[in-house]
Amino acid sequence: MAIYTRTGDAGTTALFSGQRVSKTHPRVETYGTLDELNASLSLCACAVQADGVKAFLDAVQLQIFWFSAELASENDAPTAGQRYISTEEIDALEQAIDRAMAQVDDVHSFILPGRGEPASRLHFARTLARRAERRLVELSEQVKVRQVLLRYINRLSDCLYALARLEDHLTHQQHIINEVATRYRAAAGHPSERSPMSLSFHELHQLVRAASERAEALGVPVVISVVDASGIGMLTWRMPDALLVSSELAPKKAWTAVAMKSATHQLSTAVQPGSPLYGLEAQMAGKVVTFGGGFPLWRDGNIIGGLGISGGSVEQDMDIAQAAIAAVKMGNNQ
C-alpha cells in the first residue's frame, strides 16, 4: 500500500474536518511541533536510566497523540471514542516533577544542558516542548484552545527539565563510581600484572564469602582471618555473635599455618612430650596454635597466605576453612 497521496504537493494539508489549509497554518505548525517533540521523546525513552521513567515517557507520547489529534480538529468538545488531555494528565506530570526534584540538589542559577546523553536528550525535548507551547499560544490568539492544553504543555516542559536533572544526577553518580573503580584497578594492577604469589582482592572476597556461607549453613558464627605470605594480616571479619576469643584465635591460626607451612591440626601431635616440636607453644608465647582451623594457602607449590577460622568446634572450623579454600579453587598442598 502506497503511503503517498500527492494531495499535499501543492503545500496544503487536510484537517480532521476535511478542510484543506496551508502547511504553515498555525494549527499545523503547532501539531507539527508536537510531532517533533514526540519523536524526540522516543529517543529519550531509549536512553533514560531512572526507574519508571521509560514507562512514564511512553505514556506521555500517547498523550501527545491525543493532543495533536485535538488540534487537527476544529471541534471544541471531545467526540465519541476520542481521548482528550485532562487535569488527570497534568497531575501525573506534577507528581513526576516532585519525585525527580526530590532526588537532586537545589540549584539557584542556570545550568548547562546535560552532562550525559540521557539528560541531553531530555533537555532537547524540553526545548521542543517550549516551542510547541509558543506555537500553541499563537494559535490560541486566533482560535479557541482549551486552557487545559496550555497548562499541560507548560507543565510538560517543566517535567522534562526535572527528569533531565535526575538523569544528570544519575550519570554523575555513575561517573564517580567508574572513576573510583578505575583508580582502584590501577592501584591494584591488572591480574596479569600482580604477583602470582599474592592474594588478590577478589580472592580475599571469595574466601570470606565462601567461609561465611558455610558457617551460616552450619549455624556457627565464626571469625575469619587471612594473612599474606609473610604472616601479615590482610583481613579479619567477625560474624555477628561469634565468640570474642575467636577474634584472637583466628589470626593466630592463619599466622601459624604460614609460619609452620602446615595446617594447624597437623601440629597437635608434633608438640606432644617427646615429639620434635615439644615446647613450641611455650617458646612462642602463645602465638602458635596447634589445633584445627588454620590452613596455608598455596599456589603453584608456594605459600601465598594463610586462612584461620575460629568459633565452632575444631571439626567445624576445619570444615568451614576447607569449604572456603575449595570455593576459590586454591590448593592447600595437604
From TrEMBL:
Keywords associated with the record: ATP-binding, Nucleotide-binding, Transferase
InterPro entries in alphabetical order: CblAdoTrfase-like (IPR016030), CblAdoTrfase-like_sf (IPR036451), PduO (IPR009221), PduO-typ (IPR029499), PduO/GlcC-like (IPR005624), PduO/GlcC-like_sf (IPR038084)
EC number from the UniProt entry: 2.5.1.17
Coiled-coil features, chain-numbered ranges: none
Domain Cobalamin adenosyltransferase-like: 3-166
Organism listed in the record: Kosakonia calanthes
SUPFAM superfamilies given in the database record: Cobalamin adenosyltransferase-like (SSF89028), GlcG-like (SSF143744)
GO function term, MF aspect, one: corrinoid adenosyltransferase activity
Organism ancestry: Bacteria, Pseudomonadati, Pseudomonadota, Gammaproteobacteria, Enterobacterales
Gene3D superfamilies: Cobalamin adenosyltransferase-like, Haem-degrading domain
Protein name: Two-domain cob(I)yrinic acid a,c-diamide adenosyltransferase PduO
